[in-house]
Design goal:
Blueprint lengths: L2 H15 L3 H12 L5 H8 L7 E6 L6 H14 L4 E7 L12 H4 L9 E7 L11 H11 L3 E5 L16 E6 L5 H8 L7 E4 L7 H14 L10 E3 L8 H16 L2 H31 L4 H10 L5 H12 L1
Parallel strand pairs: 1-4, 1-5, 2-3, 2-4, 5-6, 6-7
Helix pairs in contact: 1-2, 1-3, 2-6, 11-12
């Protein structure tokens, strides 16, 4: 990075700390695009993070995650809190960009100066979360947002990734979908700190609550935290106040003992491993792409002279 670029990035950081919302967008774009200045940005902002409530909302498509998020925004704003939203959407297979727009889903909030909404593309990463999602949440935290909500696309095993991003993971279900049984089979029930049965006015809501509570009874508590099961109706707002109270209660639980510290350390460890893995992968790919080695090995695999495992082994020998 040349000196002028460092100065430009530092100017953005300074403007963010002074309350400039446009600098937030530019810095999130910078980290989302994996720009060389990303490390400088995150190193500069890291000391100002750790104050916000960070909640992850996940669950299968169609359970009402976006409507529930919208209600939580309204509830937080009524309390005088500022809110940052990261909506992780499926990636366009052509551009890599998010194909669901945040303002399409939450248009009524986009003009509120106390709310910052950013739609991010999953870009094929496991869990539907781009590698930049965590950094975007930290940028919003450093900007001073009181509450940050990460809403994921929620497809199959993808819900598991949200537990690495959020302090409190909210798993949303809906009556009549069979989600609770499917999630139990997939091991996804284990990630929920709070369970929400949304669309609770539908037939079968009480049955879904009973199924979830039965499953939770079979599981050991999370080091002293027993995940609550809450019925909500996002359309009317019913149950949202109780959900908010449980988010706050879980935050207090994490802040009062060693359980929260162990969880934070685990998340930091996973983050460091993820960053290291990404850097090593990029370094290996860069070295492997030099010269003809990759193409020659591809030719050998294509002609069945080598299998992919043996070719990868030879490539590792060459780059080391």
């Amino acid at each position: 990075m040349i000196p002028n670029e460092r100065k430009d990035v530092q100017a953005l950081i300074d403007r963010l700390r002074a309350g400039d919302a446009r600098s937030v967008s530019r810095l999130i774009t910078l980290v989302e695009n994996q720009a060389p200045e990303k490390a400088q940005v995150m190193a500069s902002l890291f000391p100002y993070t750790g104050r916000a409530i960070i909640a992850g909302i996940t669950g299968s498509p169609g359970v009402g995650k976006s409507s529930l998020t919208d209600r939580l925004i309204a509830h937080a704003r009524d309390k005088g809190l500022t809110v940052g939203i990261i909506a992780v959407d499926p990636s366009s297979p052509f551009s890599g960009g998010a194909i669901l727009g945040d303002r399409i889903r939450m248009q009524s909030r986009s003009t509120d100066p106390g709310v910052f909404i950013r739609s991010m593309a999953s870009r094929g990463h496991l869990g539907g979360l781009s590698i930049a999602t965590r950094d975007a949440a930290r940028i919003l935290d450093a900007f001073g947002k009181d509450v940050i909500i990460i809403e994921t696309i929620g497809v199959g095993q993808s819900e598991l990734a949200i537990a690495q991003e959020a302090q409190t993971t909210i798993l949303v279900l809906a009556p009549g979908t069979g989600d609770s049984i499917q999630m139990m089979k997939a091991g996804i029930m284990e990630i929920g700190d709070i369970f929400v049965v949304n669309k609770a006015d539908r037939e079968g809501a009480d049955q879904t609550v009973m199924e979830v509570e039965t499953m939770l009874m079979l599981e050991s508590s999370k080091n002293g935290w027993r995940p609550p099961v809450i019925k909500t109706q996002a359309v009317s707002g019913a149950g949202v106040e109780e959900l908010w109270s449980q988010i706050e209660a879980h935050g207090r639980f994490l802040s009062e003992g060693e359980v929260g510290r162990a969880r934070r350390r685990g998340q930091l460890r996973d983050e460091m491993v993820e960053i290291l893995t990404e850097r090593l992968k990029n370094d290996i790919w860069h070295k492997a792409s030099q010269g003809r080695a990759m193409e020659d090995l591809l030719d050998s695999v294509e002609q069945k002279e080598l299998d992919p495992y043996s070719a990868a082994g030879r490539l590792m020998e060459l780059i080391h």
